[in-house]
Design a protein that fits this description.
The protein is mainly α. The chain contains 7 helices and no strands. It starts with a helix and ends with a helix.
């Protein structure tokens, strides 16, 4: 089964004893078969912008089925990290981006994102604003 390390032909050394839990987790995930990635795994790696060419298509498949797919933090945490990726991450995924934009346009038009009373720091408002920025790019 294919891993990020195999695709990138770049093996990271084992993290040292002083490495953070995030560094240890990312190193482990680079060695995990892509077919076994969970929403949480995708959220972590895309949030760190590791393995984006291999993982973004997988994340889009998840988000097309469930735009608010949830890792370990909150509904939409995977989407939040996908929306933070630079435009260059989408250069070979133009059709997938358009499909995701279509799904997100429907999502942001309904509640809770359409609620005019959302406060600027409300998580739904922040995610809704990020979706609108993605749609406008």
């Amino acid at each position: 089964m294919t891993t990020i390390e195999q695709l990138e032909r770049n093996v990271w050394p084992d993290p040292g004893p002083d490495a953070t839990s995030l560094v240890r987790r990312c190193t482990t995930l680079r060695r995990k078969p892509l077919a076994e990635f969970t929403v949480e795994d995708l959220r972590i790696m895309l949030g760190q912008q590791i393995g984006v060419p291999a993982l973004l298509p997988l994340a889009v498949q998840v988000l097309l089925r469930d735009p608010l797919a949830e890792g370990h933090y909150y509904p939409g945490d995977l989407l939040t990290n996908v929306l933070r990726l630079p435009d260059s991450a989408w250069s070979s995924l133009r059709a997938e981006r358009k499909r995701l934009q279509s799904v997100l346009a429907e999502l942001v038009a309904g509640p809770p994102f359409s609620d005019p009373d959302l406060k600027p720091r409300d998580p739904d408002r922040r995610l809704g604003d990020a979706i609108v920025r993605f749609l406008d790019r």
